[in-house]
């Protein structure tokens, strides 16, 4: 099942829960502090990578690119995972990153 299909199924069955979740996420992202848009997405790339959340990492990388992040910035964010979350976790995330950029950064 594609990421979007799964999300659409959740929205269809539980629209009020998704609306509350989306509003919370938007508030934290937009009003939670002074970090600029690009930095916030790089933090989310690193966090999802450190936690081994493959689908979240893919989504966050796409949103980071849409916010203007470069391939080098994405890679650096993932490399920073190694000292804290461990080398194996970083390597798993790096594999997903390489797949994400294999044909160049996706068009936004």
Give the helices and strands, then pairings.
Blueprint (H helix, E strand, L loop, with lengths): L2 H11 L1 H17 L5 H15 L2 H13 L4 H9 L1 H5 L1 H15 L7
Helix pairs in contact: 1-2, 3-4, 3-5, 4-7, 5-7
Task: Report what the structure shows.
The chain has 7 helices and no strands. Helix 3 (37-51) packs across helix 5, helix 4 (54-66) packs across helix 7 (87-101) and helix 5 packs antiparallel against helix 7 (87-101). The two termini are 23 Å apart. With 108 residues, the protein is mainly α. The protein has 2 domains: 1-33, no CATH class; 35-108, Up-down Bundle (AhpD-like), CATH 1.20.1290.
What's the quick description here?
This protein is mainly α and 108 residues long. Helix content is 79%, strand content 0%.
Using the coordinates above, name the CATH class of the largest domain: Mainly Alpha
Give the helix/strand class. mainly alpha
Distance between the termini: 23 Å
**Number of beta-strand segments:** 0
Mind summarizing the main beta sheet?
Answer: none
Residue-averaged pLDDT = 94
CATH superfamily of the largest domain: AhpD-like
Inertia-based shape = globular
Low-confidence stretches at least 5 residues in length (pLDDT < 50)?
A: none
CATH topology of the largest domain: AhpD-like
- Count of separate DSSP helical elements: 7
Order of helices and strands: HHHHHHH
Radius of gyration computed on alpha carbons: 15 Å
Corresponding CATH architecture of the largest domain: Up-down Bundle
Whole-number tally of structural domains = 2
């Amino acid at each position: 099942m594609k990421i979007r299909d799964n999300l659409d199924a959740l929205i269809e069955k539980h629209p009020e829960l998704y609306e509350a979740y989306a509003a919370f996420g938007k508030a934290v992202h937009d009003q939670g502090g002074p970090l600029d848009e690009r930095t916030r997405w790089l933090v989310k790339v690193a966090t999802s990578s450190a936690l081994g959340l493959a689908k979240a990492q893919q989504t966050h990388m796409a949103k980071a690119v849409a916010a203007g992040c470069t391939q080098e910035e994405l890679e650096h964010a993932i490399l920073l995972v190694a000292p804290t979350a461990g080398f194996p976790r970083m390597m798993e995330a790096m594999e997903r990153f390489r797949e994400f950029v294999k044909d160049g950064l996706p068009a936004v």
